[in-house]
Amino acid sequence: MPLDLTELARVGRVLEEAHHLLKGEQERLEQQYGPTPYGDSTAGSPMQTLSGIRDLSTAVARALKEVALAAGYSVLGMDQRADHALRLARMRPVAFPSGADRMSRPLGEATVRAMELIRDLGFFHEDIAIEIDVALAAPQATYPPADWDAYAREQRARSERH
């Protein structure tokens, strides 16, 4: 069955806008910190902040690529390939929103806007929206944790709730 190309186009435009915002934020942060800061690897450090923005950007770019493939395959009448690409596009984006957990606070305006766009898109599993809200509300960077044992307990408790 052919995919809804109008909906895919809407999703693709939102993903492109979010990716554009994140790439711009990455460039701003690279100018601020230098392209490859080394040394301090604590949560919120320049090294972790750049790693986080790159993770966010890469995750959105991957989802956009899969949406574009799904649309293209659908137009070509390759419905099985289109369905597969759409399933890949909807998969939990690796490092989104967790990339923000690495970043110093306050998060940049473009990062916040991109995360809100993804949250409001309604394309990914609904848990992503909750995780984005948690990441946006965090008063400071939370990854890597200072206490790995407490972090592991929290992760286990979170997975048991879902």
Walk me through this protein's architecture.
This protein has helices at residues 5-33, 46-75, 79-90, 98-101, 109-121, 126-137, 148-161. Helix content is 70%, strand content 0%. It has 7 helices and no strands. It is globular. With 162 residues, the chain is mainly alpha-helical. Helix 1 packs antiparallel against helix 2 and helix 2 runs antiparallel to helix 3 (79-90).
Morphology call: globular
Largest sheet: none
For the record, give the distance between the C-alpha atoms at the N and C termini, rounded to a whole number.
32 Å
Helix content: over 70%
Assembly context of the chains: single chain
Order of helices and strands: HHHHHHH
Mean pLDDT: 91
E-strand count? 0
Low-confidence stretches: none
Please report the number of helical segments.
Answer: 7
Q: How would you briefly describe this protein structure?
A:
By secondary structure, the protein is an all-alpha fold. The chain has 7 helices and no strands.
Please describe the structure with a list of short key phrases separated by commas or semicolons.
162 residues, mainly alpha, 7 helices, 70% helix, 0% strand
Question: What are the SSEs and their pairings?
Answer:
Layout: H1 5-33, H2 46-75, H3 79-90, H4 98-101, H5 109-121, H6 126-137, H7 148-161
